[in-house]
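Deliverable D4.2, example record:
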Amino acid sequence: ELTSSAPWEKRRAFGAAMLPMLEPTTLRNLSRIVLVGGDATWTTVIEFNVSVTGVNGSVATELQEKEVTQRRVMADVWVSDDGVTWHRVTDASPMGPRSAFACASHISKGDGACVFVLGGVA
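Output generated by the structure prediction step:
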């Protein structure tokens, strides 16, 4: 069973890829799950007073509320070998804060394994 909670904050529009790797001496499969970026949104209720002065000098004050949705785009990278235990690689990846993008993994003989981040919104 995978974990029901993770060490990163709740998010959406993140990228994920399976990074295939082989253990060099036994050639055992050590695939890693990579999670990248995304964005977190939340709604805050702001209360404020509205005052209106009438023609006769009377003042009426009313408390009003407004919902404000805020969004924070993230640039963190997390990896896991089993989907249960996660490790933060960085809070500030070279791609910068990004959401709604695609990820793809690639293995080459000379460079090893890597994850490509394609497109998205900063």
